[in-house]
Design a protein that fits this description.
Helix 1 packs across helix 2. It contains 6 helices and 2 strands. A hairpin with a 5-residue loop joins strand 1 (34-35) and strand 2 (41-42). It is mostly helical. The chain is elongated, with a radius of gyration of 22 Å. The protein has a two-stranded antiparallel ribbon with strand order 1-2. The termini are far apart.
Length: 131
């Protein structure tokens, strides 16, 4: 039984990407789809999984170089890169949590100018310690 195959256009459409992005990822070594007898790209399940990993990693702030290292089990510094990325994600998640709390306070605040509200200001006090 042959595994399913998809064209570059089908994969691009599924992931809502321009086809040139998939071609670029191939050029920089992140993807290696097989070619058919007419030299057209044929993506298999493993290729599609890589596209999903790249897309999710980019959404999390990783560069293509970092993603290449992530997907290379033999890459030197892979674990260090992942540790740094996890620390960065933790920091960013904390910032998003703080921003959400600030927005929730602003949503319920009765002050016309929320920046004048003492309850709102507490959400940015850590950034104002030197002022």
């Amino acid at each position: 039984m042959n595994s399913p195959e998809w064209t570059v256009g089908q994969v691009a459409e599924r992931f809502d990407l321009p086809t040139n992005v998939l071609r670029h990822w191939e050029t920089v070594g992140l993807l290696t789809p097989e070619r058919d007898s007419a030299d057209r790209r044929r993506y298999r399940r493993d290729d599609v999984v890589k596209v999903a990993v790249i897309q999710r990693s980019k959404a999390a702030g990783m560069s293509l170089d970092q993603i290449r290292t992530l997907m290379d089990s033999e890459a030197r510094g892979r674990h260090e890169l992942l540790e740094a990325h996890i620390a960065d994600l933790d920091r960013r998640m904390d910032e998003v949590r703080r921003s959400k709390e600030m927005a929730e306070h602003a949503f319920s605040c009765r002050e016309h100018d929320v920046t004048a509200c003492p309850g709102f200001r507490k959400h940015v006090e850590d950034l104002l310690t030197d002022f």
